[in-house]
Amino acid sequence: MKYRAVLFDFGDTIVNFGPFDQKALIKKACGESYQYLSSLGQRLPSMKNYIRRILITIKLKLIWSDITGNDFDAMDVLKKTGRKFGHQLSQQQWLELLRIWYSPLMEIGHIEKNFRETITKLEKMGLSLGIVSNTYAGAEALDHHLRELNILKHFPVRVYSCNYKFRKPDKRIFESAADKIGADFSEIVFVGDKVETDIAGSIGCGMLPVLKKAHTNEGKKIPENARVINSLNELPELISAEC
Q: For 151, phi and psi rounded to 5 degrees?
């Protein structure tokens, strides 16, 4: 077998979210988080002011991320905002707050109906599996989502940009994943939905780039050396043909 590992992007690759209104989803997340904090007896401003504070903080963080090229962690935002309001939570309560904050995304996210069979086929081919994701949702939130989908155990290597000072297409984040999964770039297949980060980044590292068709790449120019699939269940056959 020429290839030893397959690395996946998370959103709209493993978990399909489709187009959504980010601001509306954040507002919903804040509302549900507010109710949870209220149930714990935490001191709170009006819900309107709480949501406004979170939205402003996230907007500023996103602007700074675009400037610096690295993502923030939603848990840090929740803790920083909460401490300004005087919140005192245990670590377990902070984690639960993060899960509640992420839950609106879980409600709209789904995997392909035969995805578990697909990853089982890949594992039987002797391939190690991992994830490399640009995200600010928080590692604990994404792990919780994978656990709820009953697929976390299939991805022992998970590299989330919120834990690093860089993100895709920066070569360093791919290097971290390659080191963790124990394979050279030439032995890795990378599957993602974004041309600018997933495909450009994996090509730059010398991986086999596979673009999964999604709303995020509609109308985009696809590099000639990228393979294209409509569904992840095409992967086992594609990889076999490349070997």
A: -130, 0
Name the domain count of the chain: 2
Any idea what the CATH number is for the domain that residue 138 is in? Answer: 3.40.50.1000
β-pair partners for 158: 131
Angle at 95 between CA 90 and CA 101, to 5 degrees: 125
- 138 and 75 part of one domain: no
Domain termination site, one of 45, 75, 108: 108
CA angle at 59 for the pair 133 and 195, rounded to the nearest 5°: 35
| 222-229 long-range contacts, CB within 8 A, separation 24+ | 222/195, 223/195, 223/199, 226/195, 226/199, 229/191
β-strands 157-160, 128-133 pairing: parallel
Which of 69, 85, 108 delimits the end of a domain?
108
d(CA 198, CA 29): 27
Domain extent at residue 208 = 5-17+111-242
Does residue 180 share a domain with residue 70?
no
pTM for this predicted structure? 0.92
pLDDT of the chain, 243 residues: tens digit per residue: 799 999 999 999 999 999 988 888 988 998 999 999 999 999 999 988 988 888 888 889 989 998 888 899 999 988 988 888 899 999 999 999 999 999 999 999 999 999 999 999 999 999 999 999 999 999 999 999 999 999 999 999 999 999 999 999 999 999 999 999 999 999 999 999 999 999 999 999 999 999 999 999 998 999 999 999 999 999 999 999 998
Q: By the 8 A CB rule, do 75 and 94 touch? A: yes
